[in-house]
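Try this one yourself first.
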């Protein structure tokens, strides 16, 4: 059956505010390095007041993945809520300019468009502080049933499990997709997110509402409550019908299921500038290959290439034509 979209992403629509910071500045502010913390608007305002020079770009985990997929030549859409304010209009402009179909209606009242204050340390690690704002207004009514059922892959971010209405939207979209025999992919998003919702995420996997899980090492450890990577990997492979895609920073990535494990190396970069969005773009590369029927190792190499591009500059949206970059590296025809 012909589909209109390769991938439909559902996630938090966020404007990122990035600044460089030293480790001691994080400690003074009481921030946990490398983690994502939910904050209220007052805390967001206080942190913003203490930030140095900033770079402002549209972000959001699933939105970043969709932008990466569009750059790789895929047909993609995104569902996420912004308010009709300056930041919301900028987000809508940016994601559409990236080639992503975005039709979610603006919120006309309530909280402002979400923003994420990101502190990037000299080693490229990012510490994120997210005010969800209008994201919390995303609900089941924002899911276009035909669109959700049509896409080859429905891609959902774990962060959606925080706002109750967004969780309902998540489940509605997943059930529509599975009813049509499509694939549902879940990004675990953050180890602290897994800590909050471990049992529910495992329930989604074991109820076979999810076909593909994207995780980094710390998220995988949290999911299976073990500090031993091999033990966590064995548990992941034991999940019935699940394809696990695990990123391991400089060690590359692996794709695992009951049939076996495929490992790929990371692409070398001259300098790690900012790791914001590395996992998002890895998912973009992998899904670009997956939806084209490429072998898992080649799809994972596409993911590694996209992640390498994103960590070489500030911000979580591609600055190069990823399709051309992939062709230059022999990964796309």
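Now uncover the answer:
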């Amino acid at each position: 059956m012909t589909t209109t979209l390769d991938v439909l992403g559902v996630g938090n629509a966020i404007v990122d505010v990035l600044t460089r910071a030293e480790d001691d500045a994080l400690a003074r502010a009481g921030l946990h390095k490398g983690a994502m913390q939910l904050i209220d608007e007052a805390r967001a305002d206080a942190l913003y007041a203490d930030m140095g020079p900033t770079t402002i770009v549209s972000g959001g985990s699933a939105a970043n993945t969709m932008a990466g997929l569009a750059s790789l030549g895929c047909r993609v859409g995104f569902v996420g809520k912004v308010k009709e304010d300056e930041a919301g209009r900028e987000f809508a402009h940016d994601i559409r300019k990236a080639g992503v179909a975005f039709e979610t209606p603006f919120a006309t009242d309530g909280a402002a468009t979400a923003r994420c204050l990101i502190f990037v340390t000299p080693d490229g690690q990012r510490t994120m502080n997210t005010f969800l704002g209008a994201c919390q207004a995303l609900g089941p009514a924002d899911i276009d049933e035909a669109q959700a059922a049509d896409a080859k892959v429905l891609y959902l971010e774990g962060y959606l499990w925080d706002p109750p209405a967004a969780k309902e939207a998540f489940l509605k979209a997943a059930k529509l997709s599975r009813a049509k025999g499509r694939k549902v992919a879940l990004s675990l998003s953050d180890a602290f997110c897994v800590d909050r919702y471990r049992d529910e995420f495992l329930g989604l996997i074991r109820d076979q509402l999810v076909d593909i899980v994207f995780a980094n090492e710390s998220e995988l450890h949290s999911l299976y409550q073990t500090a031993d990577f091999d033990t966590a990997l064995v548990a992941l492979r034991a999940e019935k019908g699940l394809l696990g895609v695990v990123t391991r920073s400089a060690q590359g990535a692996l794709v695992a299921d009951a049939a076996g494990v495929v490992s790929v190396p990371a692409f070398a970069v001259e300098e790690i500038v900012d790791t914001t969005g590395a996992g998002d773009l890895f998912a973009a590369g992998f899904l670009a290959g997956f939806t084209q029927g490429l072998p898992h190792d080649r799809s994972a190499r596409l993911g590694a290439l996209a992640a390498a591009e994103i960590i070489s500059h500030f911000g979580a949206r591609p600055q190069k034509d990823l399709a051309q970059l992939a062709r230059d590296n022999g990964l796309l025809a």
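Discussion: The CA atoms of residues 8 and 147 lie 8 Å apart. The first helix runs from residue 23 to 29.
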